[in-house]
Write a structure and sequence with these properties.
The chain is built from one helix and ten strands. Helices cover 6% and strands 65% of the residues. The N terminus is likely disordered. The chain is mainly beta. An eight-stranded antiparallel beta barrel has the order 1-3-4-5-6-8-9-10. Strand 5 and strand 6 form a beta hairpin. The chain is elongated and about 45 Å long.
């Protein structure tokens, strides 16, 4: 009887449906001619054991090699995670989503400051793995391809695909 109760409790330890979580993301990658990193906050909600939605917001202070061209990125992202397997300690998933990125560039042109701003969309797709560290804590590792959609840019190529990585930590409730 005791073994049956322990087995039932262990099986429910990774149940996901209705579970919510908040956490931090640490995306990184290359693009625009240099490496970059971001810091993000996220919320996760599991609609079922196979579908999770993840809205997030990121901020990325970047400084190019040329000290006269600092710029920063920030914006919201929305990803859908489609799990391949039922709840387990290690689960791979497919990612599909989009983001809206605001980009600010500041140039010092002979002591005169010049500011420029751009807003662009970034549809993304990729693969991730969810590592359940405990019932309350998990870690995500993702590899994602982003596609940039720009109106008219002086600084970036329209339609360029970049490949990025991300490590995230979530506390579930």
């Amino acid at each position: 009887m005791t073994l049956l109760m322990v087995a039932a409790f262990s099986m429910n330890g990774f149940a996901q449906r209705g579970m919510q979580g908040v956490g931090l993301d640490f995306p990184f990658g290359t693009g625009c001619g240099n490496a970059w990193y971001r810091i993000g906050i996220k919320y996760q909600y599991n609609f079922s054991n196979y579908v999770r939605i993840e809205p997030s917001f990121f901020y990325s202070p970047i400084k190019k090699e040329d000290a006269n061209e600092p710029y920063m990125l920030f914006g919201p992202m929305l990803n859908l995670h489609l799990f391949f397997e039922p709840p387990m300690p290690i689960r791979p998933y497919f990612i599909v989503g989009t983001g809206l990125v605001w980009w600010e560039i500041t140039k010092d042109m002979t002591k005169r400051v010049y500011n420029d701003e751009e807003l662009f969309m970034t549809p993304d797709a990729g693969l991730g793995v969810d590592f359940r560290l405990s019932h309350r804590c998990s870690m995500q590792v993702e590899a994602v391809a982003l596609y940039r959609i720009l109106n008219d840019s002086n600084y970036m190529e329209n339609g360029k695909v970049t490949f990025n990585g991300k490590v995230g930590f979530t506390v579930n409730f």
